[in-house]
Description:
The chain is built from no helices and 2 strands.
Amino acid sequence: IRVAVLNADRSPIAGFGLEECDLIYGDSLDRRVSWKGKTSLAHLADRPIVLRFELREADLYALKFEPR
Length: 68
């Protein structure tokens, strides 16, 4: 699984694209998404975003944002 963070108009946010996303693989119920080691999206809290998921032989059941 990889996740890209996009602006509301679906344009990419620098540093948070699919290419920068650290690959998530294996079975787990508690994984953090990261982009080249960065996990915080706090700087995006004031604006709408779109998440784009890329899944290969995977299932996504839930997603939760946590305050830091």
